[in-house]
Amino acid sequence: MNSNMFFSFNRFYLLLRNDMLLNHKKYLLTIAGAFILGFIVLYTSMPGYVHKGDFRFVFDAQRYTTAFGMCLLGLLAFVGSAFSELSTKIKTSNYLMLPASTFEKILSQFVIYVLAGSAIFVIVFWVDAHLARYAILSNLKSVYNEDLGPDKSKYIEVFKYSMLLIKNKYPAISYWNWFEGLAIIFGMFSVGMYFFSVKIFFKKLRLIKSAISLIAVVYLGAVVMTLLSHIFYPETKGFDISNALDYKLPNGLFNFEMWLYLSAYCVSLFIIPFGYFKLKEKQL
Question: Which of 30, 90, 132, 234 could form a disulfide with 43 if both were Cys (CB 3.0 to 4.6 A apart)?
Fold first, then answer.
């Protein structure tokens, strides 16, 4: 096999350059929209009124994590908007005729929508978190119109990405271990890759259909687990699979936890080639 037919750096660079020339305005508008929406989410999540001296309900790491999760939905929607050229027959034909291999087309979309999108998201969220905190603190008031004094800044903590490593804060601060942390990262990556790759199979309303298909896959998994529960635990009634979920493996993990970890770590290994061969099939 001629490796130059599979990947050429010069051809890949020209493909990226062509995409940026055609869609740079769309990307700039998307970044501006993400900045505004992220600011709104954080600003509306932070308290406008507080009880003086009461620091039990400060805007802390857990609340930042919740806001971060909400903003991740925006990143997921952006990743799911990849391969916009496949939306109509004419655009699809023009895109498939571009002088680039299937691998280069997949990789270019991955670089723009996943790598660059994630990097910009991290920067935008950090800036939004600090701007929203500054805006709230400048107008923060006590419910009884008392002067909050020098402790005003304590009601909203300064955002740092290390906050996302905190698993629980009460009764004592505990952090995700490396195995759990990587599982969360790979799990989010797998969901993103699902929207990135599966939408190639659809022609219209691709993002919506991808979301519906993901829900269908989750329900199908639940049905399979229910059937297995009925086979191995005859006392199971209906969809009550608590007996199967409570089974503890020799490694100390419950079987449901093991299933989640395997899904997080391994699903993307199948989804990405899935999308690659589907796009290749369109070109043949």
Answer: 132
